[in-house]
Amino acid sequence: TINGMGNQFYAAAAQAGSKNWEALLFGSLDTQNFITVDKPPVSQWVMGLSGQIFGFSSASMLIPQALMAVAAVALLYGAVRRVSGPRAALLAGAVLALTPVAALMFRYNNPDAVMVLLMMAAVYCAVRALEHASARWIALAGVALGFAFLAKMLEGIMVMPAIGLVYLIAAPTSIGKRVLHLSGALATFLISAGWFVVLTLVWP
Fold first, then answer.
1. What percent of the chain has pLDDT over 90?
2. CB 182 within 8 A of CB 138
3. How far is 122 from 120, CA to CA, in rounded Å?
4. CB neighbours of 38 closer than 8 A, spacing ≥ 6?
5. Which residues, other chains included, contact 84 with Cβ-Cβ below 8 Å and sequence gap of 6+?
6. Would you state the pLDDT for residue 3?
């Protein structure tokens, strides 16, 4: 909590979300829902829910960010371990944990922490999908990227082309099934990202 309220722009939305469910849903800057922040609201959901449970404070807003760092390192470890063994996985996890920009990002209340966690979840799911050409795991990667889009828009799906290309080239099944699996993953991405877009269009 040495960072206090961090980025006060997002802190205001976290405070509003800790007091009002509609403000939480839309990432509003105020409890009267006059205006929202400049990003989709996934990161505000995490901080606002924490504020609803524990009361709004610097700690309730920033501790979830640190926990997301732990989860991101765990997912990276899990993904690399499946491909290259535990030593390489420990090295990869340590590099992520000790990279200065990551350490800064995961102790602040910008949307980057949840975005990186969701991107890492997508990569982990993709690694699992590649093992047995799993339609379910690659579809889960699409879900994770959909919510990463709702964290920071196009930044959240920067890894999508790499995931799709690797699966298309390396998944141990026929090319037809690879294309079919990727089409399913694209559908889950569109659903998990698009439901909120539709909600904003139909909400009075």
1. 92
2. yes
3. 5
4. none
5. none
6. 85
